[in-house]
Amino acid sequence: MVVDQLSEDVVDRLFQALSDATRRDIVRRVSAGPMSVSGLATFYAMSFAAVQKHVAVLERATLVTKEKRGREQLVQANPDGLALARRLLDEYEEIWRQRAARITDLLGQAPGAQAKEPS
């Protein structure tokens, strides 16, 4: 399992980065193509510096990368980081599906439990 292989710090950085709506929106925008930090800043009612801080959080979580081109820094989605986040979420979903299946099995085994017939 990926969850078992990653340190708590890595998992915390990923979920912290994705817990904020602005950061999720930045990931969505740069997934369509690279954008400069100043270009990203035009979409949000916050300072350029605040957008830079959001990008830095995403970069630490490996969800985006920055590349300097001339005077601009282009932000782009990091497919490896996004794939890691997807695998983590898939594994958590599977854990909860297994728990729900066990609960369903236990309820089906309860004394007096009967399967309901669809009406």
TrEMBL record:
Please indicate if the UniProt record lists Magnesium as a keyword.
no
Q: Does the keyword Transmembrane apply?
A: no
Key words of the record = DNA-binding
Q: Specify the superkingdom.
A: Bacteria
Q: Which SUPFAM superfamilies match?
A: Winged helix' DNA-binding domain
Q: Where is the HTH arsR-type domain?
A: 3-96
- Any one GO molecular function term: DNA binding
Q: List the protein's name.
A: DNA-binding transcriptional ArsR family regulator
Q: Which Pfam families match?
A: HTH_20
